[in-house]
Amino acid sequence: MAVLFRDFIYMDAEMERASRGDILVEGDRIAAIGPGPWELAEEIETVQGKGRTLLIPGLVNGHTHAAMVLLRGLGEELPLKRWLEERIWPVEAGLVPEHIYWGTRGAIMEMVSTGTTCFSDMYFEMDEVAKAATETGVRCCICRGLTGDDPVKVREGVELFRRWNGKGNIRVQLGPHAPYTVSLGALKEIVGSAADLGSGVHFHFLEAEWEEAFIRDRFGLSPLAYLEEAGLLETRGTVLAHCVWFPEGEVPELAGTSVTVAHNPTSNMKLGSGHAPLQSFLETGVPVSLGTDGAASNNRLDIWGEMRLCALIHKGISKDPTAIAARDIFRMATLSGASAACFEKLGLIREGWQADLVMVDLDRPHYIGWDPDNLIGFLVYAGSSSDILGTMAAGRWLFRDGEFPGQDRGEVMGEISRCRDDLLGRALRR
Ligand SMILES: [Zn+2]
Fold first, then answer.
1. What is the tally of structural domains in the chain?
2. pLDDT tens string 118-134
3. Domain containing 154 — which CATH number?
4. Where residue 11 sits, what CATH number does that domain have?
5. Measured in angstroms, how far is the CA atom of residue 111 from the centroid of ligand 1?
């Protein structure tokens, strides 16, 4: 399959300014950028941009729990620990594979319609997630959430890696849940297994304020020393979700390690967790991706919304309008997220790179006044996911003019609703 995007505006986080031209997609890659002429395949779809449609790289959701769409709205307005212990964990105990499958299918619909072509997912029954992603064509980096000291679960994570890593659009990491649910000994074992496999590690870290004192009291270590002791600074790639309470004084030591921070501004705001020292991460060169976290704590899976909120809260908190440039946020939502999810040649519009592309309609009132130099600001501050006309991953349309090619929207909606009723029913019966 080949697609010719004729007369489009295009831009990625490394381009100084937006450009205008044609983009040719062949198979799963961007084959050429220019004006042509090119020798075109007979079987080609031509999409006319008329200089009023923008192509950006597919957005990457750097941290989520996709099937949590089934738990959306549960325990609203509770603090993190009570929210988990009283509302989330008791319901999650009743999750069965078909819940995960249909929940993920629903989450994928939500994500591709808001421009996300790749997501990093930590949950249970991850074969179902891999299946849902493979069937729909979206990319994902999965890890099984590991809690406790049970070696069986670690083995499951390792087997998941062997089964799925590198298959089509799937990548796998190991996923110890958090310092307060996994012992340091188990964490070291997991990191050791990751080193043997050559896999990355995905870990929740310092989401709530009490976690730093917990780490100091329980292990006698500062957050940075704890990461070092666990081996998490030297893996093939460590994703630390949240880092809201990462001590500012230790941030410079994180730069140059294997760590990417996954920043989840809405979830952190909604659970009242606080705000991460994002400016320090970016200024010291620590890579940062952008995530939604699960739909039960957001409650959207819309990275575009995260970009705007991220831009605004850090300016407001620091009382500095120059804090966090729109271009940095766009990079977090594309290239940085793609690298953290273990994908190569993903996140920029370049010849030979993966054809994960999102079409944005610039022919709308709130884009009047855009030019090649200011477009990135228009996107982050004035744009929204409702401007999206189409989403493509690896050269395949996942969303187009309000439809989901290859998916039965009615079936997915019905199954999500049925699974939610079943799941909540199980929790009530216990
Ligand atoms: Zn999370």
1. 2
2. 999 999 999 999 999 99
3. 3.20.20.140
4. 2.30.40.10
5. 16
